[in-house]
Design a protein that fits this description.
- The chain is 44% helix and 18% strand.
- By secondary structure, it is α/β, with parallel strands linked by helices.
- It has 2 domains: 149 residues, Rossmann fold; 142 residues, Rossmann fold (3-Layer(aba) Sandwich), CATH 3.40.50.
- The chain is elongated, with a radius of gyration of 24 Å.
- The structure holds beta-D-glucopyranose.
- The site of beta-D-glucopyranose has 14 residues, from α2.
Length: 326
């Protein structure tokens, strides 16, 4: 090759290295288990606005499509097929059913699309990590909060009360539990660890009632109303696995003529704005911040890292925070 030719080639190479990488347009597919969920609504709105912020601030653009799984696994599976056909560059996935994680993730991995799992940790029934093998796939990770911590915080809030939740002084804390979707590890852990925090602290507990409210406000209200009419004053503490159900329970408590902080205690998780206000007004005893801002930003950051070809960790954790009256 001639010397002049070599020189031209070298100059082209140097110029190419000096130029900024070409801006990219990325297609992002977000599949939410159900739009009709107070917490996941905050979460998905924050996901979208953080992607928009990044698009506005940088060279790369993120075209985000968010779909509603309507709490139907077959529907969500179709939505994932569509994302794959459309050739999205990354998928953020809030599974309807974690027991279907294997099948769904297999499809996404086969299509070589990175996948960020959020909110519903893909654990087996016994917490035995039987689904966690899917996180061994490069390009698949889970972003969330350790639900054991939220349950522990609920129990600690009760333990820290002057009477430790034993309003009638009979030596035991009599509670009802209103659970989220029982397949969801958040529901299982919050149910277990709220009570464990009390027994670990040496308090005696009595479970009067434990029912499934499926994360829904109306169901929380119905279950709490039933329990209050059945057990009356014996109910000292109402544990709800989330704030939506606690909002329902608060309405039932008021309708039954009971008063939070005086003859009953009420706990939730999420720290929805209306519940934080109720905690400060004394209409709820406490809640636990489920940090949708921290989690959605961590999910977007992981998606962007995957798009840039970076290696993902298996897990990205965000802490819960205890919320009591200011
Ligand atoms: C939240 C619930 C929500 C559920 C959805 C939980 O982490 O606390 O409010 O309904 O996630 O999966």
């Amino acid at each position: 090759m001639k010397k002049s030719m070599l020189l031209v080639l070298a100059m082209v190479f140097v110029l190419a290295c000096a130029l900024p990488a070409a801006a990219k347009d990325y297609k992002v597919g977000v599949a939410i288990y159900q739009f009709d969920d107070n917490f996941m609504t905050l979460y998905r709105n924050e996901l979208k606005s953080y992607f928009d912020e990044l698009s506005a601030a940088g060279e790369d653009k993120y075209d985000v499509t968010i779909v509603d799984g309507k709490n139907d696994m077959a529907e969500q599976s179709n939505q994932i097929d569509n994302f794959i056909t459309q050739g999205v560059d990354v998928i953020i996935l809030n599974l309807v059913q974690t027991s279907s994680a294997d099948a769904i993730i297999d499809k996404i991995v086969a299509a070589e699309i990175p996948c960020i799992l959020i909110n519903r940790e893909p654990l087996g029934d016994n917490g035995d990590e039987s689904y966690a093998g899917i996180l061994d796939n490069a390009g698949v990770c889970y972003v969330g909060a350790d639900a054991r911590q939220s349950g522990t915080f609920q129990g600690e809030i009760v333990a820290e009360l002057e009477n430790h939740g034993d309003i009638n002084g009979d030596g035991k804390i009599s509670y009802i539990m209103i659970e989220g979707d029982p397949e969801n590890i958040d529901a299982q852990y919050r149910t277990e660890f709220s009570v464990k925090a009390l027994t670990d602290a040496g308090y005696e507990v009595e479970c009067l009632d434990d029912q499934v409210g499926n994360w829904a406000q109306a169901k929380g209200q119905e279950l709490c109303a039933n329990a209050l009419s059945k057990y009356g004053d014996a109910v000292e503490v109402v544990f709800c696995n989330n704030d939506a159900m606690a909002l329902g329970a608060a309405a039932a408590i008021q309708a039954a003529g009971r008063k939070v902080g005086e003859d009953i205690y009420l706990l939730g998780v999420d720290a929805l704005a209306e519940c934080v206000e109720m905690v400060n007004n004394g209409e709820m005893t406490g809640t636990v911040l489920n940090d949708h801002v921290g989690q959605s930003h961590a999910a977007v950051d992981a998606a962007v890292a995957a798009l840039n070809g970076e290696e993902l960790q298996n897990y990205y954790w965000v802490d819960y925070v205890k919320v009591t009256a200011k």
